[in-house]
Amino acid sequence: MADSVICCLGALALELTPGTRAGREALPAEAAGRLAALVARDLGDIAPGAAALDLGLVAALFDPVELLRPGYPLHGELERLVARAPGAAGGRVIGFGTGAEGLPGPLRPNPDYAGGPLRLLPFLLRGPADALAPVAERLEQTLLDTGMAGAETALAAQDGFAAKIEHARLMTLDDLAAMTALQYEHAGLAPLWPLLETALFTPEREVWLDAPPEPLLRLAGGEARMALLDIDAWSEGGFAPTGLDAAALGRSYEHFQRRQRQLAAVLEAHGIPVTFDHCPAGRDPREILRA
């Protein structure tokens, strides 16, 4: 019986100099192939068995939210294209860049997320499980601490994307998730991370954000439901601060509404749809979100 084919998912992460943007968002096909070969060489230096595996890389700049989505659809499309590419499997290096019609639709970065300080080029290694598993384990163990891209790789990315790059490193998607969790903590979004983590790694589970004064959220079946509270329901549900006069209470409620919109926007950027369920005063909003 043929061994099962699996993938190790990762990204070349380019940290741009603060206040700068890349001059271009994607490379032409020939340059994409050269950059993919350099990434393959770097990975082979870290985990020698990587040279016997197929490598596919999208030579375009993405935001972390475009990679960290349930089911990893961007990497899924990349795997589909690598599997269909001509040539005998095992050691192929394939860089996907722009042609006459640009990148294939599913591999195009969303311009709404362009301009961030961390830009990512998705890659994957693909091959038989017995060959890929030890390579994936090695990369998970080492890339986060020692995964700086080679100097030639960093220079090729800098020249190709017309960007000022401070750091270029290779990471697995688990590394990217860990980095994103830390960034969200620093940005005041730590309460939301357990929902995102569940959606990414254990989507069959149900999880709640139930920590007033934070908005009330339930994630189940790949979708989030948020309690939409009017000011009376918000006040009686334990979400409102105590001891405020009417004006201060109104300002606090407006802040709560902004927080709802912020959390919903982050979830939707990660590909998780959000439904707002109206929860009137006098009813437990948790019962409504469970319905």
What's the gist of this structure?
42% of the residues lie in helices and 21% in strands. With 291 residues, it is α+β, with helices and mostly antiparallel strands.
Structure description:
This protein is an alpha+beta fold and 291 residues long. The chain has two domains: 5-172, no CATH class; 190-290, no CATH class. The relative contact order is 0.16. The strands form two sheets. It has a five-stranded mixed β-sheet. It is built from ten helices and nine strands. The protein starts with a strand and ends with a helix.
Question: Could you name the key traits of this structure?
Answer:
single chain, 291 residues, alpha+beta, five-stranded mixed beta sheet, four-stranded mixed beta sheet, 10 helices, 9 strands, 42% helix
Multimer state: single chain
Output the number of helix runs: 10
Shape, principal axes of CA atoms: elongated
Query: How many separate domains make up the residues?
Result: 2
Q: What's the end-to-end separation, in Å?
A: 46 Å
**Radius of gyration, CA atoms, in whole angstroms:** 22 Å
Main β-sheet: number of strands, strand sense, barrel status? Answer: 5 strands, mixed
Number of strands: 9
Strand order of the largest sheet: 3-2-4-1-5
Order of helices and strands: EHEHHEEHHEHHEEEHHEH
Q: In what range is the share of β-strand residues?
A: 15-25%
Range of helix content: 40-55%
Please, what is the average pLDDT?
Answer: 95
As residue ranges, the low-confidence spans are: none
Structural class: alpha+beta
